[in-house]
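debug: dumping io for the single-chain case to check the tokenizer round-trip. Nothing else runs in this session.
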Amino acid sequence: MLDHLIRGATLVDGTGAPSRSADVGIRAGRIALVTGAGQCREDAATREDADGLVLTPGFVDPHTHYDAQLFWDPYATPSLGHGVTTVAGGNCGFTLAPLNPARPQDADYTRRMMCRVEGMSLAALEEGVPWGWSTFGEYLAALDGRIAVNAGFMVGHCALRRHTMGPDAVGGSPTEAQLDAMVALVKQCMAEGAWGLSTTQSSTHADGDGRPVASRHASREELIALSRAVGEHPGTQIEAIVAGCLDQFADEEIDLLVDMSAAAGRALNWNVLTVDAAVPARVPRQLLASERARAAGGRIVALTMPILTPMNMSLGTFCALNLIPGWGEILGLPVPERIARLADPAVRAEMLRRAGSPEAGVFRRLADFGRYVIGDTYTAANDGLSGRVVHDIAAERGQDPFTALVEICSADGLRTVLWPMPTDNDPASWELRRETWAHPDVLLGGSDAGAHLDRMCGAPYTTRFLGDCLRRRRLLPLEQAVRMLTADPAGLFGLRDRGTVAVGNHADLVLFDPERIDAGPATLVHDLPGDSPRLDSRAEGVVSVRVNGVETVRDDRLTGAVPGRVLRSGRDTRSVPTR
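debug: decoded output
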């Protein structure tokens, strides 16, 4: 007898094959039957009619930061509601384990680093995470049996360095013995289930003290040694961030990424490839790394988002504006001093110059202040401005847009919420995205779900992308879009028996209404430990989500079940050849 039968669904199985009407049966957490609609002859404990609905594999998000959130939110919201059944965490070089038991203060350092670099709430990290582990295996064990999604984690280079070198990890170079210990530690973490190594060399990544994070001090030799160790364990890979990820790679960055992948004999993924028709040289330059990696026996995969992710800004709290060269010095001042400096026309002129300079890279996109929309305001002087475009307000006041924006924010004590309108929402950019998605070394993802909680909400990219494919731009057929959200990322990670709807595979399934599938607007909610805020977005049109055969979502609402599994390298992943 089947545990559950889904009858008459339009099955899009994740392979890219044409959709078909089918019955799908589940038994013991796996797919036990796939047959034509109405042809199932087995009894089932429960069944549902899915006529008019689409059934797909569960979506796989290849880049999240749910490492902490899963402890207070086992449902990985909002991702699970948007059909994501498997998440990859431990990215960008940042993980909560391992921790050196001889230095309990390292947990506090890690919390403050995660707060600064990934925009996580310090109160939530302090109150919502148990912090009772030392080894990577103990961290994974703390999640076992209590999560609703499947989750796998890389081990972060910063944690490896801190564990091995202590405070000298920031600014120091390891001795030969320390490097040997670090290599042994990454091997131990992989033996305990880590999916591989993540690292960052990005100039935007600073710790809680404002210093470059530990992995940014690593030499090329250290990175190659750790990469080589990754290749000694089955089912592993590398995730790496360098400064050029934000705009265009330097030659030495391409050399480094190619050599890391070739040394490991494993795929290396990076994020995020920003596609903009106004910068036509970017995509071919970034994908040059992939071409060179294949020639060297490696593989480099670029993650890119298939939607425009809403992201808010503020002159009052840390956000992407702080990362514009020269801006952090001003925006890091105490608020009264900040307001005074921003009132100086010469200071504003220099900030605008730096924001438009080549060194600003991709952050130049943020410098068109006339295209910002005013969000929440907090003073009577700004009544009626919420929802208005800065360009229009500036024209009424006879000011340039940046001056008008600064004046509005200063009146609110810099608490004003700002929403930049995307500069790459033009037909040429969308056509360039469609072409870029077809590249064999480009993968959809880069949501950063679980990070930058009050600034951006990338988790709903799955449902918004499907809605786009079905009812709006229709850049891709549904079958191809589903494959890009399921089998493609599952294949990158070498996930065993996941990513397609096939007999014997784990029953990670999404059932949705093709006429309604979409994501609602991002709204600010206060539901984190410590009453900290985050942006949330509800799914629309999701009828059911099953993880390992158990229903976790019904009619866009969580059921409360926690059938997810911690996926460990080797056991739950296989090695994926780079050639």
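debug: round-trip ok. The longest strand covers residues 2-11.
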